[in-house]
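Our preliminary data section would be incomplete without showing what the modeling component actually yields. Below, a chain of 100 amino acids is followed by its predicted structure, encoded as C-alpha cells that our downstream tools consume directly.
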Amino acid sequence: MASRVLIFFIRHASLVRPLSESGKLRMATDMADFELAVGQNLLPVEQLRAPYRALRYSLWLDSQGEDQIWKGIKATLDDYAAKVRVRGDKEFSPVYPLMV
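Predicted structure:
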C-alpha cells in the first residue's frame, strides 16, 4: 500500500505544470510532508526502493536547472538504447522515439 501511495502521488504531482517558484516550494513541502506521513503510518519510505527513489528523483528535478535536466534525460535515453542493443532486441519501446 505504501508503495502504491507514493507512486500515485508522484504520478499526480508530475501532471502539475508549469510551476511557479512558489509552486515548486509548495510541491517540495508537500512531498516532504507526504514522505513523513507514509513513513510514520505505513512503512519507512527507505524500504520502498523504486518508488522512494522516484520521489527523491522528482525532488532532484526541482533543484536543477533546465540544462542539467535535459542532460540527465539524454543520458538516461542513451543508457536505455545501449541496454536494448546489448540484449539484442530488434526494436525500442514505442515511447523511445517520442522521448528522443
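The CA atoms of residues 16 and 68 lie 20 Å apart. The first helix runs from residue 2 to 13. Preliminary results of this kind motivate Aim 1 of the renewal.
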